[in-house]
Structures are given as structure tokens and as C-alpha cells.
Amino acid sequence: MSKLIEVKDLNIYYGDFLAVEDVTMTIEPKSVTALIGPSGCGKSTFLRSLNRMHEVIPGAYVTGDVTMDGENLYGRYVDPVSVRRRIGMVFQRPNPFPTMSIKENVLAGVKLNNRRLNKSDSEELVESSLRGANLWEEVKDRLDKPGSSLSGGQQQRLCIARTIAVKPEVVLMDEPCSALDPISTLAIEDLMTDLKDDYTIVIVTHNMQQAARVSDRTGFFNIAGTGKPGKLIEFDDTEKIFSNPSNKATEDYVSGRFG
Amino acid sequence: MSTTAQTPAQTSSKPVRRPGDRIFAGLSTASGILILTTLVGVAGFLLWQAWPAITADPSEVRGGQGLLYYIGPLVYGTLVAAVIALLIAFPLSIGIALFISHYAPRRLAQALGYIVDLLAAVPSVVFGLWGVSVIGPMMLGIQAWSVDNLAFLPFIGGPASPKSMLVTGTVLAIMILPIMTAVNREVFLQTPRLHEEASLALGATRWEMIQQAVIPFGRSGVISGAMLGLGRALGETMAVAIILSISARYTPIITSPANPGTIAADIALQFPEAPTGPPLATLVASGLVLFCVTLIVNMTARWIVSRRAEFSGAN
Amino acid sequence: MTTTQTRPARKPLPPRPLFDDDSSGIKSGRITRVQHVGIVVGSAVAAALLLTAFSVLGPFALFVTTALVYLLGVYGVARAVEGRRHATDRVVTGLVTTFFLIALAPLVSVVWTVVSRGLARFDVEFFTWSMRGVLGEGGGAYHAIMGTLIITGITTLLSVPIGIFAAIYLVEYGGRGRLARALTFFVDVMTGIPSIVAGLFAVALFTLFLGPGIRMGIIGSVALMVLMIPVVVRSTEEMLRLVPNELREASYALGVPKWLTISKVVLPTAAAGIATGVTLAIARVIGETAPLLVTVGTTTGLNINPFEGRMQTLPVFAYYSYATPGIPREAFIERMWASVLTLILIVMTLNIVARLISKFFAPKTGR
């Protein structure tokens, strides 16, 4: 189910403002790719352009190519709705639908695509998705309670369950642990390691230790100054980035000597 | 809900109470109590003034056949007019609010919201005078067509009139539309971006996103908007007094010139004659009934809102 | 890298046919912008032909028929080309747009009617003369304009502070206490009080103190207060509740007293919303006719003392010009439209002023 994503000469704009300039990278299937860099360097913007969530903001657009197994996501007859179904996204702050129960939250995406989901199939899917997100044991007795009744870490795992329930090929995570406590963070990190058996994962993180712990490949984004576009400085195996980066700026950043 | 931790008891347990805090708390509490007293006053004074009509001999009451005989058709007419208005305005207000909040280009949306605000400010007497000189004549054609072709429906009947219940209800709908739209638009705009993006990221189309994120979040707001609209339609006086032709008691037909009146319009039309004694009390008694009807409407709406509180979007 | 961690056996995922449109590709048929314009134009032409065939005329009928033909057409085409979900999406988009355009029609019509008919008597005499001693043509609404401004002004001055403080009580002080719950509930009830009932209440109240049959401006103001206060409370309360608790807590954490937190942090954050609410409240009461009909009455001369005698107000002036015209009737109807035009202009001016205030004092938000 996981797929290879190739980004070529990607420029990302908000109206007239060029936010990210000229990114080229290859994201391997069944791996975790981490994107690191200082605040405002465009790593989240870049992530959002991978499943066309970027263009939800009025005036935003991109130039260049993003292909998934050879298909251009920004091609002429491409439907952004199906792109987003195949490339799921987990956000910085947990965002379960507050009016839905835990079960309804998991099924939210599936119900869009399938109106006649029978009861046993949906129960099975709820269980497998929640198990996939390591949440089943904690919530199996209260599936009909509102999703907002869970703790922050549980809510975030519920969002992951909701994302994988639609069987995406790729899961994008935008600082998924930044609003969570260390124990919940650990749970999510374990989960990422499990998930990469099935999915291609791209994660944006502020936390370099986290990038070092969970990812196989790491990309470092940097920005020359306020108002300047963000750029991909270096993209390599995580081990190399953190032990022996080839770029001076990367070395400064990962060793904490930045700025 | 957000301030459960700040009850007066806890505030006063602080060692020092600043004068500023004391004045602020005092003013706030006094305002609240004043409002409650006023409401009790409204109910009390109406009852006091209506009492002569309630206890009077039926022959002394306006109309000469007792209070129920007089008020019954007016209650019926009030409900018919308000229901027609709400049926027309409810879907329209949601659609218009969604257009402004989620469909129109952003720059345009602000201007559009402003236009609706301006429409909300048009006084009811203006709508009444406009309705009787523009909408009534305009709807004569479609009503005449309905009388010719749809007469099998129980609520269609001739002769078609520009001063019918349907015309009145339509004008009332236009009148309550802005206030309902304004409320809906506000709550739709407040839908957390987080929830909208959650839905879009699952592969929802715009309409599916609205169903998943916007409507559930705004539901109690939409209900309170409809409540405001219904309250206004029930009590709307001048437009009805100007437009509606009143000459019947109970009738299901809404296209003819023979209609029951509404309570509010009846009071406005009769009161300036300055009656005294039981006839005056009769008018006040009908006002009391109108007050009770709006009370029931509001209590029902309130109950629906509180039932949704557990799933409230704000946390 | 593979994981060696052991964990509870995962149930096999259900087989793939989970989706209605089970193409695994991301491409689908799309209706282009040009094709879409074609559907719109086609619908208009079809609607025009249809109406001609049935010999119905009128721009409104043409618009509604076009919309219906378009909705059917776009659903059919999109269903075939883009699939069910996109077809539904397009229908809703069309429907919502249609609703909006329908809603614009009455606005345009009201403005056109009022302006075109009101301009005939929108002259200097209208704004400088009262109706004292005027029987037919001529005369003006100076007395009515002054009456409306005075009565509404008093109402606003009294209602806004009471309303805002009551809302502050509800959100910041009342908590879940009995008084707060009662207040929330009864403010809702008061929102639904019909204006004529408020008028009756004010009459009854002043009858108690001054005896029956009294008419004066302040009674009208009291009636309007009953209508205005709950609107102010409700809108203010909603806006205060939207102020994130984090802001209050941040302020408390800095040692700022509660009343300063409310007046310096909470209220400014909600100011724009409160201004909008107050505008709607003023707009609601300034055009009220029924309660003034029973409390203030009507008169032909100028009276600027709200504590003595009948006053004229613009909406009542307009209503009586329509309901009890004299001779020649035309003169009364022309004055009616002129007073309606004046009323609308006052309302719009108020709106613009409030809008400007809220624009310049609102904190910048993400939206």
C-alpha cells in the first residue's frame, strides 16, 4: 500500500509570496522521513503541499511536480479529494470531530466513500484501525463516548486511527507530538515505527531527538531570513545527518549551535 | 461552561478583594437581577391588566362571546403566519450563510456579510409598506395559478389575493432571513480550521466537509438563530397589520383575502382606539397569550440546545 | 529497518473493496471551468425557451427556472463524469449560490422602491418642517426625526451598559450558579418577547405610577429597552464565551486582578463582536413601530421633551401616513416614502459607524 513520492523543482506560494523554493527529494516507500528545521522554514508548508492541503488556504498554489508512483499529484485531471484520501494527514493539535463518538470518528473518512458499510464490516474496521493506532485496549469499552472525552495523546492516536481507516498509501504528520506530554509522545513514536510496515510516513518535527529516534531519512530545511523562501538544505540518511552532515548549516542546527 | 472554576464563592475566598473587583461584580450582578425583575414585571403587569377580562362575563369581553372565542383564531393566525415564514426562511438562511462563509471568494464574502447586516437593519414598517406595494402584486400571479391548478391542496383556495396569508408569511420570511443568516454565518465562520482540515485531509469534498465539521459545530447556533427568527415572526406586528387582510376565523386556506388575524397585529390595530375596561383587558389578555406562546417556543429551543451541550464544539 | 517489537496480533484488515469508487488512481473525470460556464449558459437558454413556450415573463421567473434547469443539468453531467460525490457537491454549490442570489432580490427591490419613491419629497422642507397645521401638501418630518433620535438615544444609553454588564455576569461571575442559569434562560425568553407585548408592559408600568391614558417618550424608551437589552446580552455573552480561556488564565498568571482582566483583556478581544451585536440591537429598535404606537402615540408638532406628552417618531409617522391618509392621498404617501427613506439612511449610517468602530478596534485574527 505504501508508495514512492518524488518531488521535483517544487515552489510553493501564498499569493505573491514564495514560501518554499525549489525542493527536490525522493521519499522512499515503507520508511519514515523526517523534516526538521527552524520555525518558519517552510517544512509544514512543504508537507501540506504533498497532499494538496496547501491549496485549502485562499491564494495558495505551487509550481513543479509531486509524483506518487509516477502519477503527478498536480496533473490536469487529478482530483484533490482522491489525493487526500490516498495521502492522509495528522495535524499538530489533535482534532477529533467533537460531535462524533470515538467510533464515528474512526469511520468519518470511510463513510464518505462508502454509504452502505454494514455493521460487522464497520465494527471490524473500527477495531483494526484502533488496534493499528495502539488505542483499542484503552477505548474498547467506550466507543460511543465523544472523541473529545479522551486525553490529548489518546485523541492524537484517535486521529491516526481515523487517518489509517481510509487505507491511505502515505501518512503525513505535522508535528504530531508537539501538543503532547512525553509519555504520549513515546506512544506515538512507537506507533510510527509500527506503521511504517504498511505506510510511507513523512513527519515534520521540531524535536531533533525525535527525528533521530524514529526516522530513516531526514531533510533539513532552512531559511535565509524573514521574508525569504525556505529551502531544502540537505536530505540524507538520518544517521548521516546527525553524525556527519555534509552541510555546515545542518551541522550547526543538529548540534544545537544554530544562530 | 468555561468558567466553572470561577464561581463567586472561590473569588471571595481570596484574601484581598480589590474595590475594582467589588464594583465590577456588583454592577454585573445588579444588571442580571434587573433583567430578571423586568421579566417578572412583564408577566405580572400583563396578568394584572388582563385579569378583568379573564374574570369578566363572556358578554363583556371584546366580541361578546368570551375570551377563548376572541383569542382562538388570533393564536391560530399567528402560528400559521410564523410557520410559513420559518419554512421559507430556514433553508434559505442556512444556504445564504454557507455561501458567505464557505463558498464566496474571501474578499467578496466580507462585503456580502455586510450587505446582509444592512438588510437586517431595515425596519419592519418598511418591509410592511414594501410588501404591500411590491410583493403582494408580484405574488398575485403565482397565487392565481395555484388556485386554478392546485386547488385540490387543502391550503389553496380562491380568490387569490395580494393581501393573503401566504404573502404575509413570505414577507415575514424575508424579514427574519437577515437575522437568522447573520447568526448562522457567524457560527459557520467560527468552525475551527482544525476540524475543517481534518475532514478535508480524509478526502472530503467541500459539501462533505461542511456536513462533517461545519454543520455539527454550528448546530446549536443555527437553532438559536431559528429561534430568534421564529420569535420575531410570531411577534411581528406592523408588517402583518399593514399587509394581511383579516376577515375570517379558522381557515386552512392561505391564498385568499379571508384570513384570521394575528395577536400582535390585532393589538396594534385596536389599541390606538384606546378602549377601557374589559375590552382593553381582552387585548392585554391576548398579549399575555402571545407572551406564553413565545415562552413555549423559546423553552423548546433551549431544551434542544442544552441536549447538544455534551457534544459542544467549544472545549 | 524492520520492527522486532512484539505486540498483540493485529486483526487482518478487511479486504480492499471498501470504497464505492474503487479505482486506486487519483485521476478522475473533471468538468473544466469552460465546460461549466457552458452548462450555466445552456441552462439559461433552456429556461428562456421553456418560459417562452409557456408564455411566462419576468426576470425572477427566468432566474428561478434557470437555477432549476442548471441544478438538474449539472447533477446529470457531473454524475456521469465526476461521480456521485462530486455531483452532490456541485448541486449544493449551485443551490447555495442560488439561495444567495434569491436573497439579494428583496434587498435590491426594497432599496429601489424606497429610493425611487422617497426622493419625491426628500427635500429641505421635509427636514425642517413638522406637520403642525399642515393639512395636505407640504410639511415634513422634523418632529418625527427628533422624536426617533431622542427615544432611541435614551434606550441605547440605558440598555447597552446593563446588557454588557449582565453578559459579563453570566460569563465571568455567574458560573453555573442558580442566578446565572435563570438569567441565561430568561434572557432567551426575553429575546422572544414580541415588541407589542413590550409596549403593553411599559403602558401598564406607567399606568401604575401616573394613571391610565398617559403617553410620553420615556414610556417608549422603557418599552424599547425591554427589546434591546436581551439582544445586547445574548450577543455579548456569545462573544465573551468565544474569548479563549487561555487568555484569561494568562492574565491571572501575571497577577492582573479579575476586573482588569475583564476590562483590558476579555472585552477588547470581544469588542468587534459586541459592536456588531449592539448595532443589530439598535437596528432592531430604531425602526420599531408597534410599541411606540401604544406608548408614545402620535402628534403633528415638535416635542423634544421625552418626559411630557406625545411625541412623533419616524416609523409611526410612516405608518399613519399610510393607514390614515388625508386629502390629497398622494401627498401623504409621498411623505411616507420620504420618511421611510430617512429611516433607512439613519439605520445605514449607524451601521457604518459601528462597522468602522469595530474595524479599528478589533484585534487581528487569523480569519
Descriptors:
heterotrimer; A: 259 residues; alpha/beta; Rossmann fold; 10-stranded mixed beta sheet; 10 strands; B: 315 residues; MetI-like fold; 11 helices
Give structural notes:
The complex is a heterotrimer of chains A (259), B (315) and C (367). Chain A has 10 helices and 10 strands. By secondary structure, chain A is of the alpha/beta class. Chain A has helices at 43-49, 80-86, 102-113, 119-132, 136-139, 152-165, 182-195, 208-214, 238-243, 248-254, and strands at residues 5-14, 17-27, 32-36, 60-68, 71-72, 87-90, 170-174, 200-204, 217-223, 230-237. Helix content of chain A is 36%, strand content 25%. The model of chain A has no long low-confidence stretch (mean pLDDT 88). By secondary structure, chain B is mostly helical. Chain B has one domain (19-310): MetI-like (MetI-like fold), CATH 1.10.3720. Helix content of chain B is 73%, strand content 0%. Chain B has helices at 8-12, 19-55, 67-103, 106-121, 124-149, 165-189, 193-201, 206-235, 238-243, 263-270, 277-307. In chain B, helix 3 runs parallel beside helix 11 (277-307). Chain B is globular. The N and C termini of chain B lie close together (9 Å). The relative contact order of chain B is 0.15. The model of chain B is unreliable at 1-15 and 310-315 (pLDDT under 50). Chain C has 367 residues and is mainly alpha-helical. Chain C is 71% helix and 0% strand. Chain C is flat and about 80 Å long. The chains are: A alpha/beta (259), B mainly alpha (315), C mainly alpha (367). Chains in contact: A-B, A-C, B-C. The interface between B and C is large, with 108 and 106 residues.
Quick overview of this protein structure:
With 259 residues, chain A is α/β, with parallel strands linked by helices. Helix content of chain A is 36%, strand content 25%.
* CATH architectural label of the largest domain in chain C: Orthogonal Bundle
Decide which structural class fits the backbone of chain C: mainly alpha
How do the helices and strands follow one another from N- to C-terminus of chain A?
EEEHEEHEHHHHEHEHEEHH
Our count of helices of chain A gives 10
Which two chains have the most extensive interface, and how many residues on each?
B-C, 108 and 106 residues
| Largest sheet properties of chain C | none
- Broad structural category of chain A: alpha/beta
Strand residue percentage of chain A: 25-35%
Question: What percentage of amino acids of chain C are in beta strands?
Answer: under 5%
Shape of chain C: flat
**CATH homologous superfamily (4th level) name of one domain in chain A:** P-loop containing nucleotide triphosphate hydrolases
Identify low-pLDDT runs of chain C. Answer: 1-18
Oligomer: heterotrimer
Total strand segments of chain C: 0
* CATH architecture name of one domain in chain A: 3-Layer(aba) Sandwich
